[in-house]
Amino acid sequence: MGLGIRALIIVSMTIFTLTSVANAAVGTATFYTPPYVPSSCYGFQNNGVMIAAASDVIWGNRAACGRSYRVRCIGATNQGVPQPCKGTSVVVKIVDYCPPGCQGTIDLSQEAFSAIANPAAGKIRIEYTQI
Fold first, then answer.
1. 10 part of a folded domain
2. How many other C-beta atoms lie within 10 A of the C-beta of residue 81?
């Protein structure tokens, strides 16, 4: 592959990464455990396990229902698990409302949280992007 093409690919990847990071919001995530139905958005419809409940920050009076978010762990919120992140991201669908007093921006299903972080952490710092 020519040097020019390699440089173009690297520049394109850098721009894409910077654009993606620029659009990401920062917040916190917690998790909840089954059963996942009924939910505020879909009643007794089963939406699988890669799901989440939205806090007031993104709920928007049910406008968040059905939205998908890419969520990535970026760090710990406590001293109990200083490095909880697994270095992966997960895509979740908003199916429920996390009521006032919710401890995170997004309350992930146990399975979604476990895919990106050690569940022993309980609460993590995240970047999230609507997709």
1. no
2. 17
